[in-house]
Amino acid sequence: MSVLGVVAVLTAALWATGGLKERPKQPARPAGKALDLGLFTVTVRDVRIGLATADFGNKQERFLIMRMRVLNKGKETESLGDSGLADGVVALTRTGKWVEPERVEGVAGGAETNVAQPGLPVEASAMWKMGPADSPEKLTVGLREWTYEQGFTDSDFNWLVQREDDKLVGRLTLPVAPMSPAAQPSPRATRPSATRPSATARPTPRSTPRSPRPTASRR
Predict the structure, then answer these.
(1) Could you give the 3-state DSSP secondary structure of residue 43?
(2) Residues 140 and 128 sit within 8 Å (Cβ to Cβ)
(3) Given Cys at both, which of 23, 52, 80, 137 links 104, Cβ 3.0 to 4.6 Å?
(4) What is the DSSP annotation of 66-134?
(5) Mean pLDDT, the chain, as a whole number?
(6) Would you say residue 11 has pLDDT above 80?
(7) CA neighbor of 46 nearest in space, from 135, 146, 109, 124
(8) pTM reported for the whole predicted model
(9) Cβ(112)–Cβ(105) under 8 Å?
(10) Distance from C-alpha of 143 to C-alpha of 44, rounded to nearest angstrom
């Protein structure tokens, strides 16, 4: 067999097995699998609807909350919010637009934190604000890649997130768990209820006998 014939056979075999297929720019990933984003390793756990205090005041607002485990692979402390992890986490809206979370909260070593220390795992929650009647059954989220390269305005090397919407390390479509009944405000909670005395609050009977009731005398 000639060299050209061998090349033709190998090329046909590769196409049949997918060897020459282009790598998808938004590969589908399952929840629970660690994904290497360059600067961070992120394991998406689940998505649920929950309540959180608004940025201003004490009002409770509804959020879509994606829980994930985050590990900072760099050598410096990184923010979980803007200019940090949040820049590489996006959710797909109904209009087909990728949007970053309004806020990202974290817990590390049993304490609340807004940063990720190098090598210290953080249980983080990315949060997108919802309307009062929104109750989606699924949420599609994307994780962007971070690369260590020179900045646009200087020659220093930094971790930069790749913001192209069509290039993601992973795309996950997850079911949305509804808000638990315990977290929902009850309408009875605002109604005044009559207080009943408890068993310990009841008055003890008097030690003196009650006087007999008067009876009508017969003539």
Answers:
(1) strand
(2) no
(3) 80
(4) EEEEEEE-SSS-EESSTTTGGGGEEEE-TTS-EE--SEEEEEETTEEESEE-BT--EEEEEEEE--TT-
(5) 80
(6) no
(7) 124
(8) 0.72
(9) yes
(10) 10
Distance CA 146, CA 62 (A): 30
Q: Where is pLDDT greater, at 200 or 149?
A: 149
Which element (helix H / strand E) includes 4? helix 3-17
Q: Enumerate the β-bridge partners of residue 160.
A: 147
Q: Count the Cβ atoms, other than its own, within 10 Å of residue 158.
A: 13
Paired tokens of 110? 């049993």
Neighbours of 102 (CB within 10 A): 16
Q: What angle do CA 127, 128, 133 make, to 5 degrees?
A: 125
Q: Count the Cβ atoms, other than its own, within 10 Å of residue 141.
A: 25
Structure token digits, residue 7: 């090349």
What is the number of residues in the chain? 219
Contacts of 168 (CB under 8 A, 6+ apart): 25, 26, 27, 142, 143, 144, 145
What Rg, from alpha-carbon coordinates, does the chain have?
31
Q: List all residues 6 or more positions away from 192 whose beta carbon is below 8 Å from its beta carbon.
A: none
Identity at 120, one-letter amino acid code:
L
Contact, 90 vs 99, CB < 8 A? yes
> What torsion do the CA atoms of 150, 154, 159, 160 make, to the nearest 10 degrees?
-90
More confident residue, 50 or 9: 50
